[in-house]
Write a structure and sequence with these properties.
It contains 15 helices and 13 strands. The chain is of the alpha/beta class. It is globular. It holds the Pfam family Gly_kinase. Keywords: Kinase, Transferase.
Length: 374
């Protein structure tokens, strides 16, 4: 029996490689050596994007790039340079929510500027195609900081550059500098299909986890709508409007900013799965195991578990999910070709699931494995 183990990271508790190792340990304990285990740590464009890709691109090399975190503090980032002039950039290295403590989170200040610095570093290293992994951000600035870093600047009526901070966009009247990055093409590797604006957009859905209060949502929405209007006026990205493009709301709106740079959208999961040859690994498997920290409605909108389950379904291989918490019911699981979903919180309680994540995940995997190996 062959089992392919392809999880995402489990929030801040376990990286994707750590999660894969914990699950594999559980299956090994249950199987007593009678099962072939293949691990493929995944990413949807968020944290772990470069690490996951590096396992499938052994000839790629990392290049250090100094950058800034969401609050403007110096951090050391890196880009992954691969054959053919491709560069892979993990936005979470510079704009990640994990870089800002809960007490420091201020969406009116947090900026994606550091992501633009990573992009410039990749171009200076000779990259011609930039795959920017979007996900896990602590910013809600519509990518305005990213664009400013590469030379795309918003000005007010007096010709003064606006900013910093997304709310300053309310006073923007024009945007200039779109010759930026003209030597490179851009791919937005998104983790969700959410648009920039609206009830399913960046602010309404993801803003609260970054510190946006219910009272602030309308003003942030207004600021990003103004920015999208100006970008669309100059760039004419789509007749439907930049604010409604699927994926534009990824990483606090960085997806929309990359679209304004003529970037193309691709699922972050697909980028990683292709590099790892995941479909080929699954083709001769008997069971696929995936997982993430919280398996909920957002998980089926471009996240790793949904992507893994879809590949498993293509090859008629059963798929199960192991997650920190599970909120989807049986009918929803069936709709996405997922046979079972198991919760660490339900299995061991919230305290153990958080405090002893690796051990609990191994125990949960062993329990699930025994049921499948009978």
């Amino acid at each position: 029996m062959k089992v392919v183990i392809a999880p995402d990271s489990f929030g801040d508790t376990l990286s994707a490689p750590q999660a894969a190792e914990a699950i594999a340990a559980g299956f090994a304990q249950a199987a007593s050596g009678s099962v072939e285990l293949a691990t493929a740590p995944m990413s949807d464009g968020g944290p772990g994007f470069i690490d996951a890709l590096a396992t499938g691109l052994p000839d790629a090399r990392r290049v250090a790039v100094p950058t800034l975190d969401p609050l403007g503090r110096a951090v050391e980032g890196s880009v992954l340079l691969a054959a053919g002039g491709a560069a892979y950039i993990e936005s979470a290295q510079a704009a990640g929510l994990a870089l800002v403590s809960e007490g420091e989170r201020d969406p009116a200040v947090a900026s994606s500027y550091g992501v633009g610095l990573l992009m410039l570093g990749a171009v200076e290293s000779g990259a011609r195609t930039l795959y920017v992994g979007l996900g896990g951000s602590g910013t809600n600035d519509g990518g305005a900081g990213l664009l400013a870093a590469v030379g795309v600047v918003a000005y007010d009526a007096a010709g003064v550059a606006v900013g910093p901070g997304p709310l300053a966009l309310l006073g923007a009247e024009r945007i200039e500098g779109f010759a930026a990055l003209r030597t490179a093409s851009v791919v937005a590797a998104t983790d969700v299909d959410s648009p920039l604006l609206g009830p399913d957009g960046a602010t309404a859905v993801f803003g609260p986890q970054k510190g946006v209060t219910p009272e602030q949502i309308p003003v942030f929405e207004q600021a990003l709508a103004r920015y999208a209007e100006l970008l669309e006026r100059d760039r004419k990205v789509t007749p439907a409007g930049l604010g409604q493009l699927p994926g534009g709301g990824a990483a606090g709106g960085m997806g929309a900013a990359l679209f304004a740079l003529r970037g193309k959208r691709r699922s972050g999961f697909d980028v990683v799965a292709s590099a790892l040859g995941l479909s080929e690994q699954i083709a001769d498997a008997d069971l696929v195991v995936t997982g993430e920290g919280r398996f909920d409605e957002q998980s089926v909108r471009g996240k790793v578990p949904a992507g893994v389950a879809a590949l498993a379904a293509q090859h008629a291989v059963p798929c199960i999910v192991l997650a920190g918490d599970v909120t989807l019911g049986r009918r929803q699981l069936a709709a996405y070709s997922i046979d079972e979903a198991h919760s660490m919180v339900e299995y061991a309680g919230a305290d153990r699931a958080m405090g002893e994540a690796a051990d609990v995940l191994t125990e949960l995997a062993e329990s699930a494995a025994r049921a499948w190996l009978r």
